[in-house]
Write a structure and sequence with these properties.
Elements (H helix, E strand, L loop, with lengths): L2 H8 L4 H11 L1 H13 L3 H4 L6 E6 L7 H10 L3 E6 L6 H4 L1 H14 L7
Helix pairs in contact: 2-3
Length: 116
């Protein structure tokens, strides 16, 4: 995805972060990782997850379209889907408060999760 598209979707404040991350990881490594991600279909692995799971995504996520995120949540036996309004793909960094609250809620539903 061109950096311009990411900036439009994730906000201009993310452009310097993206540029720094690519520089630190080296562009060839970023390309290799993205190529692997595109080839690695995880759907068959999702059904093997045996713990309560929170599928988190941003409403403006250009990488995981709505249909795929819904499918992912359906494939995990005990999953909840949370779509954070106005957030992009990197929802944990662009909507940290919402993500933290969602994780707290998930942990409160099953105290055994915090005993591990």
């Amino acid at each position: 995805m061109p950096a311009r598209a990411l900036v439009r979707r994730g906000g201009r404040r993310l452009a310097p972060v993206l540029a720094r991350d690519i520089g630190n990881a080296r562009p060839w490594r970023v390309f290799a990782t993205l190529s692997h991600s595109a080839r690695n279909a995880i759907e068959s692995d999702l059904v093997r997850i045996t713990v309560p799971t929170l599928v988190l995504t941003g409403e403006r996520d250009p990488i995981a379209p709505p249909r795929w995120r819904e499918q992912a949540a359906r494939l995990v036996p005990d999953a909840d889907l949370m779509v954070v309004p106005r957030a992009a793909h990197n929802v944990a960094t662009t909507a940290a408060t919402e993500v933290a609250n969602a994780v707290r809620h998930l942990l409160a539903l099953d105290p055994a999760l915090t005993d591990r």
